[in-house]
Structure prediction request, 270 residues.
Amino acid sequence: MSLPSPAADRTALVTGASSGIGAEIARELARRGHGVVLVARRVEQLQDLAGELSATGVRAEVLPTDLLDRNARAGLPDRVTALGLTVDILVNNAGLSTLGPVHRADAEAEQRMVELDVMAVVDLCTRFLPGMVERGRGGVLNVASTAAFQPLPGQAGYGGSKAFVLSYTRALGGELKGTGVTATTLCPGPVDTGFGEAAGFTAEEATDALPAFMWETPAAVARCAVDALAAGRPVAIPGQANRFSAIAAHLTPKRFLVPLLASRHPGLQR
Ligand SMILES: NC(=O)c1ccc[n+]([C@@H]2O[C@H](COP(=O)([O-])OP(=O)(O)OC[C@H]3O[C@@H](n4cnc5c(N)ncnc54)[C@H](OP(=O)(O)O)[C@@H]3O)[C@@H](O)[C@H]2O)c1
Prediction:
């Protein structure tokens, strides 16, 4: 199944579009002719990207939103409608991670992570899917991680959140069969975006923990994501090394894998 064709009154809403993978997914969609609605908190970055994409001839709108705010999330569909647009493509990409063992974690920070990585995904899918199904066309791309394929001591809540996104999106795909709407999970391995630094990794820790051949560029990840979305594939894992390690992690008995991961994770070495 292919993605809905681009049209003047149709758009792709991309969360976390102010940097990293989200900005590249917006660029990739725009390159394929889709208009975009860019959502995140940093207005200047969103406006710069909207300017860049508008110059290529697509319609690019900015809707600054704090996705941790439930009322702000609830208001998004009306704000898109007010622009005279319908959302044919929903990309739930905004995400964050905490770092370190749960017994030393800040309870508020852990809840903020689950609110963004899990609740916002569920919320926006629930709000935008009915319109897509009614129109008989659409695509959802939810961004998880290769961390979705195994428990991740040192980032327990993050790994659990991404496992939720993978399971949820696969289930959506089953529910949506025959509706004209598809659901795809993007599961990147390491990508140099500033995400690791925001979580609390030093650049050295990140590169030491994961070998160079596993790292993908944001642009390559976005291409892989939009190809999979366009093909209606349920799961996309950018890079052969990441596909291999995700399968291996999924299949390895967890009584062996979890202690090994715990012994190597930088967030547990401090
Ligand atoms: N980089 C990696 O190695 C990697 C690997 C696997 C999966 N991922 C996943 O890829 C996705 C994108 O991450 P990235 O690597 O591109 O990192 P990033 O550059 O840090 O991007 C995170 C995005 O989320 C947005 N965001 C954060 N809090 C928000 C909030 N409260 N409301 C609205 N937007 C918010 C940020 O925008 P504002 O700050 O402007 O709000 C930013 O645009 C995440 O879901 C992440 O889990 C990343």
Remarks:
- The chain has ten helices and seven strands.
- The mean pLDDT is 97.
